[in-house]
């Protein structure tokens, strides 16, 4: 059931201050993005002042989302040329590296799934792609390849589901039996992006292997629906057929990258298949929605951040597969207009609404980051993703610290030789408090009845 709430909420939201945005004007897009990035950064700084621990935002958000948000700020700097948050972001990433130099901080053990780790790995990879100067004694690319290498070690043996990655890293964490599409999709995207930036075939082989596994396990359907997950305890014989926007996004982006690299029909077909986004776009307004929970207002704090991740991949996929540009831009423009209209306040007071299709309220880190992703996503067609030969027309790329070396090849993005002292092993202890699988099913089942 689609909620029919036309004039009234829109009328009410007109009373909110809104951020000015002309989606056809790059300066206006950058101005709008800078207001939102400024809000996110101000909120972070106030949490940091209190905690003294770089890399963490406020509760009740989970650690994965912090990695994703810092990644968004790296993309923001690349897309707009505004480098004022680079030092802050660099400090956050370096502080959260943890064990094995692979984004496994012991404090996060109870919340540390493969997917969570990969969000930080992608942040570091983005820093490499857009040419951030390597930090003292480390390389951004190595931090990302370390995440990849730890996850390869965790790939299931043949007798368990024929392969694949479990959601959780540690057996004592709830959800260790769960095989989520997002976990496998993040590994796929990480592998595809590493393949692109390094040209090393190990990464493209693993990207293909993980994709083929998801197809054979039927986490990805013939029609390219991406189901939520399956259960290793039943040898992946049953599929949980909820659909979220974010795994759809990461499979789309990864496929587009592989298509760009290989021009193989397999990846063209996959790109086109995942790009059938009707389920995630509201018909009337043409804006991105989270269909499994948005209409019945059941999205939890994690789920409220998924639309931005989807939007980011949609924008980036169109860089690698330009035939998607028209569709992608249309969705991003409609979403960006509504998102800007529904942001209010500035600095620490910034609040962006979750829903772009109607007037439903609810504010937080995920909502603000969603707005930033759809707005700055409009700039990818000019700036490119930083990886490979495309784009890079952004005239203000030089500037603050941390962005040098982006053009001149001064930054070394070739991974270091693997250090055997650094080889993966499991670490950590303690229980876990993140959303339970049972809770997810319940929320999803409730949602499914009302969509
Ligand atoms: C584009 O946006 C900028 C900044 O908001 C504004 O100053 C400029 O006049 C706009 N240009 C056009 C052609 O509307
Ligand atoms: C881990 O938690 C301790 C205690 O709160 C804190 O001092 C430390 O900085 C934290 N480390 C990380 C990487 O978050
Ligand atoms: C589990 O399924 C895989 C194929 O998906 C199969 O190769 C394996 O033998 C099965 N394991 C058991 C214990 O039945
Ligand atoms: C390719 O990547 C793998 C995985 O990180 C690494 O072990 C291998 O040494 C790399 N090969 C080359 C030629 O760099
Ligand atoms: C690959 O990406 C580049 C950069 O965006 C683009 O110019 C080129 O057309 C793409 N190749 C294909 C086959 O789509």
UniProtKB/TrEMBL annotation:
<dbReference type="GO" id="GO:0012505">
    <property type="term" value="C:endomembrane system"/>
</dbReference>
<feature type="region of interest" description="Disordered">
    <location>
        <begin position="384"/>
        <end position="431"/>
    </location>
</feature>
<keyword id="KW-0326">Glycosidase</keyword>
<keyword id="KW-0325">Glycoprotein</keyword>
<feature type="compositionally biased region" description="Polar residues">
    <location>
        <begin position="411"/>
        <end position="426"/>
    </location>
</feature>
<dbReference type="GO" id="GO:0008496">
    <property type="term" value="F:mannan endo-1,6-alpha-mannosidase activity"/>
</dbReference>
<keyword id="KW-0472">Membrane</keyword>
<dbReference type="GO" id="GO:0016052">
    <property type="term" value="P:carbohydrate catabolic process"/>
</dbReference>
<keyword id="KW-0732">Signal</keyword>
<protein>
    <recommendedName>
        <fullName>Mannan endo-1,6-alpha-mannosidase</fullName>
        <ecNumber>3.2.1.101</ecNumber>
    </recommendedName>
</protein>
<dbReference type="InterPro" id="IPR008928">
    <property type="entry name" value="6-hairpin_glycosidase_sf"/>
</dbReference>
<feature type="signal peptide">
    <location>
        <begin position="1"/>
        <end position="17"/>
    </location>
</feature>
<dbReference type="Pfam" id="PF03663">
    <property type="entry name" value="Glyco_hydro_76"/>
</dbReference>
<dbReference type="InterPro" id="IPR005198">
    <property type="entry name" value="Glyco_hydro_76"/>
</dbReference>
<keyword id="KW-0378">Hydrolase</keyword>
<comment type="similarity">
    <text>Belongs to the glycosyl hydrolase 76 family.</text>
</comment>
<dbReference type="GO" id="GO:0009272">
    <property type="term" value="P:fungal-type cell wall biogenesis"/>
</dbReference>
<dbReference type="InterPro" id="IPR014480">
    <property type="entry name" value="Mannan-1_6-alpha_mannosidase"/>
</dbReference>
């Amino acid at each position: 059931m689609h909620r029919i709430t036309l004039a009234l909420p829109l009328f009410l939201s007109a009373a909110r201050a809104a951020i000015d945005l002309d989606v056809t004007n790059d300066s206006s897009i950058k101005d709008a993005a800078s207001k939102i990035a400024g809000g996110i950064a101000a909120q972070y700084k106030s949490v940091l002042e209190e905690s003294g621990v770089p890399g963490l935002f406020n509760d009740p958000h989970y650690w994965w989302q912090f990695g994703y948000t810092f990644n968004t700020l790296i993309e923001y700097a690349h897309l707009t040329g505004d480098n004022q948050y680079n030092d802050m972001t660099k400090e956050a990433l370096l502080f959260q590296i943890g064990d094995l130099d692979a984004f496994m901080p012991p404090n996060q053990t109870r919340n540390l799934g493969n997917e969570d780790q990969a969000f930080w790995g992608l942040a570091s990879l983005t820093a490499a792609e857009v040419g951030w100067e390597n930090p003292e004694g480390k390389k951004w690319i190595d931090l990302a390849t370390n995440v990849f290498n730890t996850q390869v070690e965790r790939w299931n043996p043949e007798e368990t589901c024929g392969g694949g990655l479990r959601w959780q890293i540690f057996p004592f964490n709830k959800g260790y039996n769960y095989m989520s599409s997002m976990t496998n999709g993040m590994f796929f995207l990480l592998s595809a992006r590493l393949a692109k930036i390094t040209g090393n075939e190990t990464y493209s082989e693993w990207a293909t292997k993980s994709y083929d596994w998801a197809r054979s396990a039927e986490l990805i359907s013939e029609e390219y629906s991406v189901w939520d997950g399956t259960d290793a305890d039943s040898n992946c014989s049953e599929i949980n057929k909820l659909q979220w926007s974010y795994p759809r996004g990461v499979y789309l982006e990864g496929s587009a990258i592989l298509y760009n690299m290989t021009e193989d029909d397999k990846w063209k077909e996959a790109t086109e298949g995942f790009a059938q986004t009707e389920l995630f776009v509201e018909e009337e307004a043409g804006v991105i929605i989270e269909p499994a929970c948005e209409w019945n207002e059941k999205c939890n704090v994690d789920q409220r951040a998924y639309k931005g991740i989807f939007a980011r991949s949609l924008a980036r996929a169109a860089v690698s597969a330009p035939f998607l540009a028209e569709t992608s831009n249309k969705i991003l423009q409609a979403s960006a207009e509504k998102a800007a209209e529904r942001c209010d306040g500035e600095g620490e007071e910034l609040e962006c609404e979750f829903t772009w299709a109607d007037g439903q309220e609810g504010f937080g880190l995920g909502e603000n980051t969603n707005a930033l992703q759809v707005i700055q996503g409009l700039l990818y067609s000019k700036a490119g993703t930083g990886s490979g030969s495309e784009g890079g027309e952004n005239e203000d790329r030089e500037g603050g610290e941390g962005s040098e070396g982006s053009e001149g090849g001064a930054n070394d993005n070739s991974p270091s030789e693997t250090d055997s002292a650094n080889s993966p092993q499991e670490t950590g202890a303690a229980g876990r408090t993140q959303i339970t699988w049972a809770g997810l099913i319940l929320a999803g089942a409730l949602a499914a009845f009302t969509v």
